[in-house]
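Q: Sequence in, structure out?
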Amino acid sequence: MCITTSDIEVRLGRKIQDDEKPRVEAFIEDASALVADYCGSGFRESAGIKAVICAEVIRWLAVQPGIVSEKVGDIQVEFGTSATTQSLSPTARTSLKRYRRKLSSVPLMVDQPKWDEVIVPHVGPLH
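A: Exactly. Output:
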C-alpha cells in the first residue's frame, strides 16, 4: 500500500518537519506490515485500510518514547524504562475485521462406487 508522509500531513493538519520524516516513514512501514499480518495474504488495498494505517501512525506519533503517563494539572510526567509497544489498537483491529480472510469449511463429497450396477459374470451354479 502506497502511503506517504503527505497522507499523514493531511490527516495530522500540519507539515511534517524534515527531522521527523524518517520516524514517520518507519511508522508507515511498521503499521502497513502489521495490517498485512493481521489481514493475511491476498487482502485488497482500500481507502478503509489506508485510513486505519494513517490513524495508527498518528496515534504512535502522539506517544513520546519512554513516557508512561502524563498529568496535566501540576504538570507531572512519569517516565518508564521503555515505551509502549507498537501494535494495532483494538479500534484498528475492529475496523480491519472485514478485510481479513474468513475461515470456513468446505464439505467434500466422496464418490461412492455404485455396487448395484456392477455386473458379476456367473461362473457356475452356486451351491
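The two ends are 78 Å apart (CA to CA).
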